[in-house]
Amino acid sequence: MSKKEEKQENISAEENIKDQVEEILDDAIEEADKKETGAGDGNQEAPETSEKEQLRADLEKEKDKFLRLFAEFENYKRRTSKERVELFKTAGQDVISSMLPVLDDFDRAMTEINKAQDKELLKGVELIHNKFKETLRAKGLEQMEVKEGDAFDAEIHEAITQIPAPSDKLKGKVVDVVEKGYKLGDRIIRYPKVVTGK
After folding, report:
1. Domains of the chain by residue range
2. What is the pLDDT of residues 36-51, one digit of tens each?
C-alpha cells in the first residue's frame, strides 16, 4: 500500500469515527429535546423526576459510547503510527539487501588489491570502500560478528557444509565463514554462511 493510499485510509477512518460521534451526540440531544417538550405538559412531580433520571441514564449511556469510541480511535492511531515507524525502519531493506553482493565483491577486490602492492590504487579503493560501508551503516546495516571457533547456533548461522574438525576444540563449532551475515536494525537480513566441524 502506498503512502498516499495509507494516508487516505487514515483520513477516511478518522472521518468515519467523527461521523459516528456526531450521530451519537445528535441522537442524545434530539432525545433530550423530545423528553423536555413532553415534560412541559404540567405532569406531576414523580414522572418528571423519573424522566430526569431517564435522561441522565441516557446521557451517561451516550457518554460511555463516546468514550469507548474515542478510546478505540486513539488505539487505532497508536497502532497505525507504530506500523508506520516499523515500515520506515525497514523500508530500505530491499535496496540494502540488493547491495550486499556488491559489498562482498568490494571486500574481495580489497583483498586482491592488497596483494598487488599498488599503494595509490589501494588508497583510492579503500576510500570508496569505507565510504560505501559507512553509508550502509548509517542506514542501519550492521555486520554480524562471526569468527572461527564460535559455537554454531542454528538461530543465527546458516551451515552450508560440515567437515571433519581440524581439532577437537572445533567440533560442533564454526570452522570457516564463507559469507558474512548482516542485520538491519534488529532484524537479520542475511544469515552468515558457515562451515562447521564434526
Report:
1. 3-90, 92-139, 141-198
2. 665 545 445 556 678 8
